[in-house]
Amino acid sequence: MTDITDSAAQPERRETGRSILEADARTKKRNRAETRFKAYGIAALGVGGLFLIALLWAILSNGLTAFTQTYVQLDVPLIEEKLDKDGDRDPAKIAKVSTFGYNPLIEQALVELVEREGLETELEPKALTKMLSGAAAADIRDRVLANPELIGQTVSFEVLASSRVDGYLKGRVSRESLARDKNLDAEHLDLIDALQQTGAVEKRFNWAFITGADASDSRPEQAGIGVAMLGSLFMMLVVLVLSLPIGVAASIYLEEFAPQNRLTDLIEVNISNLAAVPSIVFGILGLAVFIQFMHLPQSAPLVGGLVLTLMTLPTIIISTRAALKAVPPSIRDAALGVGASKMQSVMHHVLPLAMPGILTGTILGLAQALGETAPLLLIGMVGYIATNYPDGVAEGFLAPNSAMPAQIYEWAKRADPAFYERAWGGIIVLLVFLLAMNLLAILLRRRFERRW
Amino acid sequence: MNDMRTMDNAVNHDTKITARDVHVHYGTTHAIKGVDVDIADRTVTAFIGPSGCGKSTFLRCLNRMNDTIPGALVTGEIKIDEADIYDPRVDPVQLRAKVGMVFQKPNPFPKSIYDNVAYGPKIHGMARNKADLDEIVEKALRRGAIWDEVKDRLHAPGTGLSGGQQQRLCIARAVATEPEILLMDEPCSALDPIATAQVEELIDELKQNFSVVIVTHSMQQAARVSQRTAFFHLGHLVEFGETGKIFTNPEDSRTESYISGRIG
Amino acid sequence: MPTLPIVLIVLAIAVAAYLLARSRAQRAAAREGRRLHSLPNYYGWTGALYAAGPALLLLAVWLVAQPVATRMAVWPVLEAEAAPNAQPALLMADVQRLAAGIDAAVASGRVPAAEAGDIPAEELRELMAGQGVALGSDVTPATRQAALRWRGLSAGGDLARTLAVIGLALVGAAFGVSRAKPDFRARNAVETAMRGTLIGAALLAILTTVGIVLALIFNTIEFFRLYPAAEFFFGSTWSPSFGGGSELGILPLLWGTLYISIIALLVAVPIGLFAAIYLAEYAHKNVRSWAKPMLEMLAGIPTIVYGLFALLTVGPLLVDLFGRNGALGVNWMQGGTAVMTAGLVMGIMLIPFVSSLSDDIINAVPQSLRDGSLGLGATRSETVRQVVLPAALPGIVGAVLLAASRAIGETMIVVLGAGAAARLSMNPFDAMTTVTAKIVSQLTGDADFSSPEALVAFALGMTLFVITLALNVVALWIVRRYREQYE
């Protein structure tokens, strides 16, 4: 080690002038670089936050209006000659009167409403009905069919205003944009303003949006997300019932029993890759296997649930394995030590201890499945107008239906911008569900979190 | 390496570091309780004591590495060359250039041997050009007593060296920035006996140029390499003095118990 | 007999087998004065498993196989008379509906069971209309023949299924009960069965992959029979027309996919990486406690929401800036849907993905390296840039590849935000389309699944699957290698 002794032989004089109390120019420069670098980090976080705020703002500002709806209070004279000529209240005969038969009555009611409120308008009675939804006549007809005794009286109904009127009152449709629209004139809008003053036209909370069914292209004011919500519910039931037991079983095998061999490796590689396969590919799988090969019905929540199960399983398996891994080996050793079999130690001790973690992971997997859209498009859960509630549980699984995200997509694709409000509103409903599921998962984690 | 060698070395009495009433808190833990110590220049000072006694914590106060731990609070006064290192005007970055540190586990960067050593000089702007840098690197590697072993593979990764070589590389890396004080936190605890002997020999050489403070678990090592020894126990500095005296004739009963193996 | 009653009967047999086997084992033990090898319940479970396991398995296989087999048996009846370009799937669907309609008519009593086979073809359509069954085309004698054959086969199959499944359950139960003797290792048998179930569940992962690959390969081969592979892979025009004469070149779609993904990564990687660095190296615990959930919120929002955000918010905003009469007066953008719109929004979606992966990777860099650098007097940013990032580089590359795979496979944002026109353009403000968007458009709607215009979606899916699989495998391999390095 001659090299050391060389330098060690003559201790050198080192400069001791470097005072640590004042920063030299280079340190200042370096500290400025440090500040800049830190600022980039803060800026990145800020931009992320900004995007989140912009997203939430877009959702809330566009979607909250879907939860109110404009209604017109209308006293409709249910004239007997028009609705029930024979006067014997035979439901079969009353049913023969189509919605066209109700239109003149509605016209009359509108004219009377305008007169009663002491308003003047140059609009023809026929033009007045443009202020109302096309659903108004059908709505009144349904009420009459349900209760034929109403015929002959003048009954007060709350009917939906047309989507243009609704949009005007919500500020979505301006007078300028309506100028190019053949549906409503400035006259209509003046009348609406006046009627709103008198209280005959008012905005109310829109329960029908949350509970109702989708409507045809021409009636955005009537469209609701209720049926699609039910479709999602049935799909989630399928996902839960299938993915929880299968996911737990697969995880237990891989975590507790699987020997180190090729097959195990193959399974592990498959799971981690499936977790990253684009969701649309699962849609192709569902289309080819469940619909083309097994001939299960198109658009059915059962098929949607099967596809989403296959898609969610890798996520659930990964989180379940983490939960099993978190149970310390000492628990297993203790069980084995008192003579339990391996299976008994897992089933009686490890699994119950891992259960909160497993449930948390499953809920988060379900939340992911609930928001997934792409695979549903391929198995036919769009383009279909879900206007009816399923008749029963079996129908709920097998009859064509939509799902919340598919319904939102459907609305986004429609021509009338009034459906956009519905789409944003649908997103709020969807996000409320996701938020609730995530909160449940967090609560579960907090409540049962265990430190070993 | 005989234990009596320490007696041969004249002990330097120029004080380099002065600490007065130093307390360290980690959250609710009171890790260092009122330590006063004077560390001499061009001397090897050893901190010994049972694990958890605070010797490493105190060492990390000397170059303000505790700043990097959230929740650590240092009070009291530590002066290096009469300048308070906890003065708000002090930039810890500049301080650490002056007070180098070698860690328990060899931690070469995942870079070449050359880049490992050149890293400090580069960030502190010590070299004007490549030739300068080459010179600094070579000198540091020679001081680290590893030049002969690596001079033919300066651009091989530093992580490919053996444990002892890695630790000497880390010492060379610390030395390259021309510090005045070298802090060593159990530098041999991860090394085998032969590598340990090499590093100890190196430490002995380093005291020609640096004030070396070494934390060690091994009393034999403290006796072999240091001129002064401080014994820490439960956050207190129990006894501080000439190494020979501490090991042969301790004043405090706790020191004696530790030396003779009854506590620790 | 319908499926549900069969299952219930099998389960009832299993319960009976459970009780019998358990009591038999207990009685035998008492009689012979020996201890049972296992707890009595395990003997019961053995009986139940022998009864229900094979029977239910047979039922499941039968349920899938019977329609397929019946279809193959009925098709020859139709084939002779079918028009050369007729679609088997549609014809068979009619046959099935007709058969189901006749069943319903018999069930409702409109047609006596004995005469169901004698209704002439002409009357069938009327009967079906009365039954509320809509048929795609007129009932030809061949269709009628096929439907009747279908009915016959199905009825036979159903009966055979019921008998076979229940019979198997009974045999299994008898066998299970007969084995319930004290020296039988019932617990081991039950545990072996459980283990088999667990393995089966784990194998589902492989089965899913096999399913995906087979579904893609078969249909892709079918597509390449109708459309030359070379033109698909190297064609630079995408113009499908269901009337025939389509040009189905994948290049414009790949270009759109790539362009959008690159823009998305240009947004997500710097922001995500810097956010991760800040959170891992600088942020105070309090900042982390709200900033991480904030980023995770972005990750938890479904892609349909991002799609709508692109279509209705970001697109119009960009047009206001870059479009005709826009704030910048550049007139680069014709409509709201564009590569930039989709890329930007996809970038936002990927930020949390990049940042959480990078966060893990940066945290995996050992603290001792940071200490070493700080101990030499490096600042934090110097430590990050010169020590932490180079050490974490492989992991970060892996994370970026995973993000790229995500971007390439993302569907809803591009379906709503990127436009429908397939073109090879450099202008990021042009509308373009992607592989995923075209898979959706070719497979939704009323396309006939055997036309090249629909089958091309499977070839697109195959391409997508291969690209993302390759990216994932490489990325996961890099990340794993990286993790091992510091373990």
TrEMBL record, chain A:
Sequence ranges assigned to domain ABC transmembrane type-1 in this UniProt record: 229-441
A Pfam family this chain is assigned to: BPD_transp_1
A GO molecular-function annotation: phosphate transmembrane transporter activity
Primary location: membrane
One GO cellular component term: plasma membrane
GO biological process: phosphate ion transmembrane transport
Alphabetically ordered keywords of this record: Cell membrane, Membrane, Transmembrane, Transmembrane helix, Transport
UniProt-annotated location(s): Cell inner membrane; Cell membrane
Keyword check for Membrane: yes
The keyword Transmembrane helix belongs to this UniProt entry's keyword annotation: yes
Annotated TM spans: 39-60, 225-254, 274-296, 302-324, 350-371, 423-444
Bilayer topology annotation: Multi-pass membrane protein
UniProt-listed InterPro entries: DUF3333, MetI-like, MetI-like_sf, Phosphate_PstA
Domain of life: Bacteria
Sequence similarity: Belongs to the binding-protein-dependent transport system permease family. CysTW subfamily.
PANTHER family: PHOSPHATE TRANSPORT SYSTEM PERMEASE PROTEIN PSTA, PHOSPHATE TRANSPORT SYSTEM PERMEASE PROTEIN PSTA-RELATED
NCBIfam families found in the cross-reference section: 3a0107s02c (TIGR00974)
Record-given protein name: Phosphate transport system permease protein PstA
Protein's organism: Limimaricola pyoseonensis
UniProtKB/TrEMBL annotation, chain B:
Entry's Gene Ontology cellular component terms: membrane
Single biological process term from Gene Ontology: phosphate ion transmembrane transport
Keywords tagged on the record: ATP-binding, Nucleotide-binding, Phosphate transport, Transport
Pfam families recorded: ABC_tran
Superkingdom of source: Bacteria
InterPro entries reported for this sequence: AAA+_ATPase, ABC_transporter-like_ATP-bd, ABC_transporter-like_CS, P-loop_NTPase, PstB-like
Residues annotated as domain ABC transporter: 17-259
One MF annotation (Gene Ontology) recorded for this entry: ATP binding
PANTHER family to which the protein is assigned, alphabetical: ABC TRANSPORTER I FAMILY MEMBER 17
NCBIfam families, A to Z: 3a0107s01c2
Protein name (record): Phosphate ABC transporter ATP-binding protein, PhoT family
Annotated organism of origin: Limimaricola pyoseonensis
TrEMBL record, chain C:
Organism annotation: Limimaricola pyoseonensis
Primary location class: membrane
GO cellular component: a single term: plasma membrane
Membrane topology summary: Multi-pass membrane protein
Transmembrane segments: 6-21, 42-65, 159-177, 198-218, 258-279, 299-319, 331-354, 387-408, 454-479
Pfam families: BPD_transp_1 (PF00528), DUF3708 (PF12501)
Protein name: Phosphate transport system permease protein
Gene Ontology biological process: phosphate ion transport
